[in-house]
Design brief:
heterotrimer, A alpha/beta (about 350), B mainly alpha (about 475), C alpha/beta (about 625), A: about 350 residues, alpha/beta, Rossmann fold, 2 domains, 6-stranded mixed β-sheet, 12 strands, C: about 625 residues, 3 domains, 21 helices, 22 strands
Chain lengths: ~350, ~475, ~625
């Protein structure tokens, strides 16, 4: 009995301590802008997307008078709850990552008119306190498609083939793929070659093993350059390329730095500079220029999308020059990226 | 004990003596009153959860009053002892899991190590404890709210500011209960399967099917009044998932295919089908991979205004738990399921149709799992989008084990998991502690409950003979 | 001479049961002491206490004249007590040697300077030679040799230390190793200025602590496997326990498995053996062999506790018998000064008739009529060939036969549990071929199944659930699909009383009951509803004399009430005692149907072995 008494006293003490303890130190200084980020189900350490956004917020945390926090969502049903969590704590800006959060963000923007919202990859929502953040990734993918075709011919002049390993077949992914394909087609038209363009959507962003299996079978069919496109699944495709001695192209961030194992086969990466975009949006809030109701569009022109440097792979100077020229043409709107 | 039973029986008998119409009318009246006053009942429930220590004290007070008429302190002592004995292992498991989780929180922070490395050991350990404190305070408040805030909100409300502050203050308990809803349904589904000797790993897929079906019905019939539309959508979800689940039952009954294999495979089929449906035929706006919003007539109504998201799904879940318990332990169907589950040979000998029972059990299990999706779809998201699955169906296996395949146990375990999950978001946003810690705590709780010897060893509890021999939960698994 | 084991006033209570009540006994060196008692008399509990599986509530035990406190089996093993359980504790996929060694893996690494020297010398030599080839200069080679020797010596010492730790219980080993590892890691990290790696070191240390223990044991076992095999050979020769140490358990017959169990105890240096109902699973042949082994063991100075409820065994070789009833010692005697009848009476507590008394049968209408019935077993082999027979009201038809000649399948077909491939049978004039079990049951057929735990009972369920296993859906037990627990409980309490199920508590789980009482639950269920035909398969298998007598009496009662009884048994005595007519089954065929009073044991035995009746009569 004494034992039980002791345990219950301890428990009660614990409860009193937790329940009635002093107000929480939140690690934010007074007067800071409070910015919360709600990730999608991919989690913060996805080596692309969510992680990149958080990097932008951390930069804002360091450089601006901003205090950034995040919540990782575990399910569709969590989105509203997690946004509410920040909104109820009187955050100034809530960044939601990914089009999967579109509904929840729209609903909550209506519920909390005093809080500003930014949503990544969604451009169709309209609300005075909501800014969409989208990217013309096709502007970068098109030249990279061209580059990949050129490299494939370089590797295997007899039967050049460019292949992609995609995540889920959803528009943000399709935007890459369609422009890649157009880039390859453009190369064929220019050079009179027959570079094939193939690939698969695995249907999952979280399946590196599946990505690798699909990558291997694409290589069996003759792929020379693998375009990884879809979170960890795409990374699996790149792993297959590394194993079989083929080339690869990364996505979202400069994957030379996020995939140390596959870095030496990466020609380049199609960068979607979420960090820049997010930082810009936060900065606009701090400067009281929040683009509410509008859309921030990352493009070649404003550095929101772009090509990563060619690190370890030697790209023929001629091809590199052609890509440069295409980049300029795309930025000027002279070439149709197919999207 | 017998006296209490006597009282209950005399009460029962008195009610039973009423004519049927009187019984029905009074039942309807009771339900009506409950529904009409549901808002206030729920608010009270949430406040009670937030202020649970007070409620425990009140409960003890009631117990003291009751003990007066039944033999005073000795009776009360026995009663408390019995309750403590029942709860000792689960409660201590949670405690031990939280302690280990706490160690993880303290010792996975780089800053703490740097401080220790610089020679400031005391400061480093102090920072570790500060981390821990912040994390667990946030976890507690996320799960059960801050008692001080609730009390002050009550005073504000009395002062004439309306219930708005109270709503903000009880968001924690509300979130916990809301989060527990899919857990309860899915846990019941797996538990029912266990009872019938079936290891239903397919709950995750069944959730998706039920969710989808309910949402389709939910947006399909404009103009239908709510009291028809909502039940229709709920039933459609349950039925679709039930039929989906019964496929595994039929396969087992007809061909002997093991349900573990078939349900896993059906999971994949349902995942891929729903992806296709969501990004294809049922996609509402191009590029969103989600269905239309359901009509408001099919909403599972919320009890209170935002930010309290508590909806009728919780009531349905509790009712489903009661119904499952009743079915399993009070009806001939349940008797058949339990017999088939423990000894199919004896069931055949007893003249039961084993094949039929398997199909029925999978149907019901699937339907319960489907209700988990239904409650999410009609209660929270109001549509279904890519990424709907959150592993409820897999966590449910753990919940069924935790609850010893007993509906009451499953509800308890689900509320615990719901609370941990609700607190996790707060812990992450306030203290920056990853939600994974909560998953670790959940897993540890299961480990400790599955191996009570550890807990008994740590806390030097006396062995309880009734516990031994309960490790076998499902004959169907692996046999 | 002081007894080797002496127990005084052992008392053990289970919830609601007094399993052992003030039991005292002693065992002398070189003696076979038999414990005789009905199922549930407390024999096994007593032995489990001695072996440390249970702890007694009261009483004291002395071994070799010293008072001991046996908390768990390892204590008992240390005292030289070994136990062979009724259900073997062997891993089917392991070899005999592995099973014997398991759990006794040498935990202490044998340390000797000689081994250390030899081992390090060899490696030093190898290193030296290697260095001569690879490197120039004798000096470098010598250094390499020294380094090599040092490494080996270091490993050897490490194993020794690990072995010492693991010879302490694992509980100490892992924390100690981990603590050392953590301390070392933290020191290393702090001195190297890499505090960020501390968690990694802690993790590694914990991992090492947790993994090294089993690794060490496996390693040590592998090292010791040869020695173990040798020792097993020696033991088996010494005691005449012939086994092949390399055979895999699942491939060897039950009798040999039992020898492995005995060897296991001997390997653990037991000189006091407890054999818990060792003959229950053995064929007569194997039983004989076991007795010879026991004789050898005793001759070589071992002492044996032997638990049984079979009287014949006791008479043939026990030195002394202690009879238990309801947890109490009711008598102690020697076979020489006692008789089977006397022992049976002591055991049951009343006079037991070993002969079934019955009036001549008065058969009436035909109840069961089987006509050229055929069936296949699970492997699709024909097991019933044109079986025809009939059973009439008020008679017992016994089916005699060696196990596995189709009796099991016949009963299954007649109760609807197995499909007939040809032929037909009628019960009360209705064709019931391939009807569902429920239809057959509802017609008034009772079935006492051959394997009561597998088919007849739901072991983890309470008695009250089991007594309505085939009537649960009928009134008064269910109304509109709702179980009426008041009625079920009332009914169960009534049956428990009427059929004397002990302990008399319908809330108990069936698995908590002894075999005889489990059978009583089945009998109670089947006999308490209106029945016209009773199919009883091996109704007394594994039961003690008291229960056998009881069930026989009930069977005859049913017959006299006008029930038709089909009795299947492999016990010739039982068939002879109960049947009015006897059908002999051999290889799926009925080879003869004879009147019970016109046939001798010998003739039946020949028939069961496949002879034809005409031949016998010639």
């Amino acid at each position: 009995m004494r034992k039980y008494a002791l345990i219950s006293i301890l428990l009660i003490a614990l409860v009193l301590l937790t329940g009635c303890g002093p107000a929480l130190p939140e690690g934010c200084e007074k007067g800071d802008f409070k910015v919360g980020m709600v990730s999608d189900v991919g989690g913060l350490d996805d080596a692309s997307f969510n992680e990149n956004t958080w990097e932008g917020l951390q930069r804002a945390d360091d450089e601006l008078a901003v205090c950034a926090k995040f919540i990782e969502s575990q399910a569709q049903a969590d989105y509203e709850k997690n946004i509410t969590e920040f909104a109820e704590q009187d955050y100034d800006l809530i960044i939601t990552v990914g089009f999967l959060l579109g509904d929840a963000t729209a609903k909550m923007a209506e519920q909390y008119p005093d809080v500003k919202f930014g949503i990544i990859d969604v451009g169709y929502l309209e609300s005075p306190n909501l800014a969409g953040i989208t990217f013309n990734v096709d502007e970068a993918s098109f030249p990279i498609g061209y580059l990949a075709a050129g490299m494939a011919v370089e590797q295997d002049p007899d039967d050049p083939q460019v292949s992609y390993v995609g995540g889920m077949q959803i528009p943000p992914v399709e935007q890459f793929i369609v422009a890649y394909e157009a880039g390859v087609a453009y190369y064929n038209a220019q050079k009179g070659t027959d570079v094939k363009f193939t690939g698969v959507y695995v249907g999952d962003f979280e399946a590196p093993d599946q990505g690798k299996i699909q990558g291997n079978s694409l290589i069996d069919e003759g792929a020379d350059v693998i375009l990884g496109c879809g979170g960890k699944t795409g990374n699996g495709g790149l792993a297959a390329a590394k194993e079989r001695g083929k080339l690869g192209i990364g996505v979202d961030v400069d994957q030379y730095y996020t995939l140390p194992n596959e870095k030496d086969i990466l020609i380049t990466s199609t960068m979607k500079r979420l960090d820049n975009a997010v930082f810009t949006v936060v900065e606009s809030l701090v400067n009281d220029e929040f683009p509410g109701g509008g859309v921030y569009v990352g493009s070649l022109a404003n550095g929101g999308v772009g090509l990563a440097p060619y690190h370890d792979i030697d790209v023929p100077a001629e091809l590199a020059a052609e890509v440069e020229a295409i980049l300029i043409a795309v930025e000027a709107g002279e070439l149709d990226t197919g999207w | 004990m017998t006296e209490q039973q006597g009282l209950e029986n005399s009460f029962k008998n008195r009610i039973a003596a009423w004519p049927l119409w009187a019984r029905l009318t009074s039942l309807a009246a009771l339900v009506g009153i409950a529904v009409l006053s549901s808002k206030w009942l729920i608010l009270f429930l949430l406040i009670a959860l937030g202020l649970w220590p007070i409620m425990v004290l009140l409960g003890l007070g009631v117990l003291v009053l009751m003990s007066k008429s039944r033999g005073g302190w000795p009776w009360m002592k026995d009663w408390l002892k019995a309750r403590l004995r029942q709860l000792a292992v689960p409660a201590l498991s949670v405690l031990a899991a939280l302690v280990i989780g706490g160690l993880l929180i303290m010792f996975t922070d780089q800053v703490v190590y740097q401080t220790i490395g610089e020679g400031q050991i005391g400061k480093g350990i102090g920072m570790g404890f500060a981390n821990l404190g912040r994390a667990y305070v946030a976890l507690y408040q996320g799960a059960l709210g801050s008692p001080i805030r609730i009390v002050s909100a009550i005073f504000q409300a009395i002062g004439g500011e309306g219930i708005k502050p109270i709503l903000g203050a009880v968001r924690g308990p509300s979130d916990s209960l809301v989060q527990s809803v899919p857990y309860i349904f899915a846990g019941l589904a797996v538990a029912l399967g266990f009872r019938a000797g079936l290891f239903n790993i397919g709950a995750e897929g069944q959730i998706g099917v039920g969710w989808l079906a309910a949402v389709i019905i939910g947006f399909s019939f404009p103009g239908l009044p709510g009291f028809i539309h909502l039940p229709l959508a709920v039933l459609a979800g349950a039925l679709a998932a039930g039929l989906w689940g019964s496929l595994a039952g039929i396969l087992k009954a007809k061909t002997g295919a093991h349900e573990v294999i078939t349900t896993i495979m059906l999971n994949y089929i349902s995942f891929r089908l729903s992806e296709w449906v969501l990004c294809g035929p049922l996609e509402d706006v191009q590029g969103t991979c989600r269905t239309k919003e359901i009509l408001s007539s099919a909403y599972l109504p919320k009890f209170l205004e935002h930010p309290v998201t508590m909806h009728w799904g919780f009531m349905v879940a509790v009712a489903a738990a009661a119904a499952t318990g009743w079915l399993l332990f009070k009806t001939t169907w349940g008797y058949e399921m339990r017999t088939v589950g423990t000894n199919p040979d004896a069931a055949r000998y007893g003249g039961m149709n084993v094949a039929k029972t398997y199909v029925l059990a999978m149907l019901l299990s699937g339907a319960l799992a489907g209700l988990a999706g239904v409650s999410q779809g009609l209660g929270i998201t109001h549509n279904i989008a890519l990424g709907f699955s959150a592993g409820y169906g897999f966590d449910a296996i753990a919940l069924a084990l935790l609850g010893k395949s007993n509906p009451v146990g499953v509800v308890g375990a689900s509320i615990l998991f719901g609370a941990l999950r609700a607190g996790a978001a707060r812990m992450q946003s306030l203290a920056g502690i990853p939600t994974e810690i909560v998953q670790i705590v959940q897993s540890l709780v299961i480990v400790f409950i599955a191996a009570p010897a550890i807990i008994r060893g740590i806390y030097r509890l006396k062995d309880d003979d009734s516990e031994s021999g309960q490790t076998v939960f499902s004959r169907g698994w692996g046999s | 001479m002081t007894p080797i084991v002496e127990a005084r006033n052992i008392t053990k209570r289970f919830p609601g049961v007094l399993a052992n009540d003030n039991v005292s006994f002693s065992l002398n060196k070189g003696e076979i002491l038999a414990f005789l008692g009905e199922n549930g008399a407390g024999k096994s509990t007593l032995m489990n206490i001695l072996y440390g599986l249970y702890s007694s509530d009261e009483g004291e035990i002395e071994v070799h004249g010293k008072p001991v406190d046996i908390q768990e089996p390892s204590d008992a093993i240390d005292l030289g007590i070994g136990m062979v359980h009724q259900h073997f504790q062997l891993v089917p996929v392991f070899t005999v040697a592995e099973n014997i060694v398991m759990g006794t893996e040498p935990t202490q690494f044998p340390f000797s300077w000689l081994a250390l020297g030899i081992a390090s010398g060899i490696v030093a030599l190898l290193s030296f030679i290697g260095s001569m080839v690879g490197l120039g200069g004798v000096g470098q080679g010598l250094l390499a040799a020294l380094a090599g020797g040092g490494i080996v010596a270091g490993f050897y010492l490490l194993f020794f230390i690990l072995g010492w730790f693991s010879s302490q219980k694992a509980q100490i080993y892992i924390p100690v190793i981990s603590a050392i590892g953590i301390a070392g890691g933290v020191t290393l990290a702090l001195s190297q200025g890499a505090p960020g790696e501390i968690p990694l070191y802690i993790f590694l240390a914990l991992l090492f602590g947790a993994v090294s223990y089993p690794t060490l044991r496996v390693l040590a076992t592998a090292l010791d496997r040869q020695a173990a095999t040798r020792r097993i050979r020696e033991l088996s020769e010494q005691y005449g326990l012939i086994v092949d140490p390399k055979a895999v358990i699942e491939d060897i017959p039950v009798g040999i498995q039992q020898r492995v169990e005995i060897l296991k105890t001997l390997y653990r240096k037991a000189d006091i053996l407890i054999l818990d109902e060792p003959t229950a699973v053995l064929t007569p042949q194997e039983t004989e062999e076991l007795f010879e082994i026991m004789q050898t063991l005793v001759e070589q100075g071992k002492s044996i506790f032997f638990i049984t409820h079979k009287l014949k065994e006791i008479m043939s070789f026990a030195d002394r018998v202690i009879v238990l009833r309801h947890g109490k010692v009711v008598g102690e005697t020697t076979p020489a000064t006692s008789s089977e009848e006397e022992l049976a009476e002591m055991m049951v507590g009343r006079e037991v008739s070993l002969v079934v008394e019955k009036e001549p049968a008065t058969p009436k209408e035909v109840v069961l009529e089987v006509n050229r019935l055929c069936a296949e077993d699970d492997r699709r082999q024909a097991v019933l060939r044109d079986v025809s027979l009939s059973v009439r009201e008020g008679e017992v038809l016994g089916i005699a036969g060696v196990q596995g000649n189709g009796q099991t399948e016949l009963v299954e077909v007649l109760t609807g549990l197995r499909a007939a491939t040809a032929g037909a049978f009628r019960i009360l004039g209705q064709d019931m071929t391939n009807a569902t079990p429920r239809r057959i049951t509802e017609l008034g057929v009772a079935h006492i199944p051959e394997d009561r735990q597998q088919d007849g009972l739901v072991l983890p369920s309470p008695v009250f659930d089991n007594v309505v296993l085939n009537t649960y859906y009928k009134e008064p037990f269910a109304e509109r699909a709702m179980l009426q627990f008041d009625q079920i409980h009332e009914y169960a309490d009534h049956l428990v009383k009427e059929f004397d199920v002990r302990p008399p508590n319908a809330e108990l789980l069936v698995e908590a009951l002894s075999g005889g009482n489990q059978q009583k639950v089945i009998v109670a269920r089947e006999f308490s509803r209106p029945i016209e035909l009773l199919i009883a398969a091996q109704p007394t298998r594994g039961l003690d004399v008291g229960s056998i007598e009881y069930i026989h009496r009930r069977l005859i009662e049913k017959r006299d009430e006008g029930c038709a009884v089909l009795l299947v048994s492999v016990e010739l005595d039982e068939i002879m005692a109960l049947s009015d007519r006897i059908a002999v089954m051999y290889e799926g065929e009925i080879t003869a149907i004879v009147d019970a009073d016109k046939v001798t044991r010998r003739e039946l035995g020949l028939l069961m072995a496949g002879s034809h009746i005409e031949k016998i009569h010639q």
